[in-house]
Design a protein that fits this description.
The complex is a heterodimer of chains A (274) and B (171). Chain A is mainly α. Chain A is built from 16 helices and no strands. Chain A folds into two domains: 132 residues, no CATH class; 122 residues, no CATH class. In chain B, strands 1, 2, 3, 4 and 5 form a five-stranded antiparallel β-sheet that branches. In chain B, α3 crosses α4. Classes of the chains: A mainly alpha (274), B alpha+beta (171). At the A-B interface, α2, α3, α7, α8 and α9 of A face α1, α3 and α4 of B.
Chain lengths: 274, 171
């Protein structure tokens, strides 16, 4: 319970959010450094190729020096340094400048790479911007509102995903779970085989489990302690499973970084309601 | 006053996020103007999850006219615990998968028998061709060809189908 009270203090929550986000930023930047050859003229992320597709106005404003292989490598190495620094000292006078670089480089990389990105990259940029706004103004109320926003965006992601699944016949019947697990890209041969051999009810239960928890994820801010932890623990397991089985490794740290903000929002709501 | 504007900005962002989901007509409009992709689509794997895999294969024609056999370019990571933490290959494979998906979408929606040559002018086609042409090839390679197949999982639910069979392009 004592540790829970810590989550009512914005600086502590900010430190948690920043540290978790830094793990995601570090791993993502390191992954890009490992395949930096792909950013050369002969790679899949070749700027020579990508700029053919980029709108002319953007292309004119996009400095080749920044978007070619050495430029991207420099940005990635700087992002690695920034994430290490912020992980060690998340709240310092230079945090705002580092966050400004993280946000600016995220936006540049989004323009640079119209392909290969995913929802984790988007959530990472969204969280970074909210953190930057909080650190620019250094006002307790703006800090609180920024945390509410991070929590709301995270909750929205689950609720929309759950609602969208409920609209689908494949998801309602449970067929989608087997079909996704059967793909080589996101699935597992053993799990697919198990689901194929077992009763359709098993797939349906798994499917409804995902749909219901996601769609009801908004209750995570309403439920009292310790019940809201059920949703967070479920989310933790869900992203861990997605990382191990589906290969969605960066989602784990990025979405986990929003959880301290969710706990903060829950405590604030209950405090407000008395 | 600043607090009011920032709160309004955040609320607006959340509303636009809701409006950007594919079930709404506003999705296309928002997507067009979202240069920095800050308005996410949160419908992960829904309503219609991807149930197929893409396979990319390439081969070369040597300067004496001999054609080599197709070799698969891996588009998927190994299922190991280590990739749950660190998986650089995924960034490459995701880009190739995105291109394959785009090509499939263009063939399904835009390309007809009359304008089938237009696929060669698309960004995804040229990107995949550029990637295949720069792979380590046989010393006497003269031209490269790639194909994209769609397969339907471990328990093959359907026969794999050919999405695209490129021409031989001179390297």
């Amino acid at each position: 319970m004592n540790i829970l009270l810590k989550f009512s203090e914005a600086p502590f929550v900010y430190a948690c959010v920043i540290r978790l986000l830094c793990i995601a930023l570090f791993l993502t930047a390191l992954e890009y450094v490992m395949i930096i050859g792909q950013f050369g003229d002969d790679g899949i992320y070749s700027w020579k190729m990508i700029k053919l597709r980029t709108a002319r106005g953007v292309r004119k404003l996009s400095p080749d020096m920044l978007f070619n292989k050495p430029g991207v490598l420099t940005i990635m190495l700087l992002r690695i340094c920034c994430s290490i620094y912020l992980f060690i000292d998340p709240i310092s006078p230079v945090t705002v400048y580092i966050l400004a670089f993280v946000v600016a480089s995220s936006l540049l990389l989004t323009v640079r790479n119209p392909i290969g990105g995913d929802g984790a990259d988007q959530m990472s940029a969204i969280v970074s911007i909210a953190l930057l706004i909080a650190f620019i103004f250094r006002d307790p109320k703006i800090a609180a509102v920024s945390l509410y926003f991070i929590a709301a965006q995270s909750i929205l992601s689950y609720v929309i995903a759950g609602a969208a699944k409920m609209l689908s016949k494949k998801w309602r019947s449970g067929a989608a779970v087997f079909q996704i697990m059967n793909t080589e890209s996101y699935g597992s041969e053993r799990i697919a085989l198990y689901l194929q051999r077992s009763s359709p009810a098993v797939s349906a239960v798994l499917s409804w489990n995902v749909m219901l928890v996601e769609a009801l994820f908004f209750t995570v801010v309403i439920l009292p302690y310790p019940y809201f932890f059920i949703f967070l623990a479920w989310g933790l397991f869900f992203h861990f499973y997605n990382a191990v089985i589906m290969g969605l490794n960066n989602f784990f740290w990025v979405f986990l970084s929003t959880y301290p903000a969710i706990v903060y929002a829950n405590i604030a709501l209950h405090h407000y309601l008395g | 006053m600043i607090l009011f504007f920032i709160s309004a900005f955040y609320i607006g962002w959340l509303i636009v996020t809701c409006a950007n989901q594919p079930i709404f007509k506003s999705h296309k409009w928002i997507n067009r103007y979202d240069l920095f992709r800050l308005v996410p689509v949160w419908t992960f794997f829904a309503p219609n999850p991807g149930v197929s895999d893409f396979n990319l294969l390439s081969r070369v024609k040597l300067d004496d006219g001999t054609v080599t056999t197709f070799e698969e370019i891996p588009l998927r990571s190994k299922k190991e615990l280590s990739v749950a933490l660190f998986n650089p290959e995924r960034r490459l494979q995701k880009a190739l998968n995105d291109h394959a998906r785009t090509i499939l979408m263009q063939i399904d929606t835009e390309i007809t028998e009359e304008n089938k040559e237009n696929i060669k002018l698309t960004f995804s086609y040229i990107s995949v061709l550029n990637y295949c042409a720069k792979l380590p090839l046989a010393p006497r390679a003269y031209a490269v060809q790639f194909i994209i197949l769609e397969s339907f999982g471990y328990q093959e639910l359907m026969e794999p189908r050919l999405i695209l069979n490129s021409d031989f392009h001179r390297i």
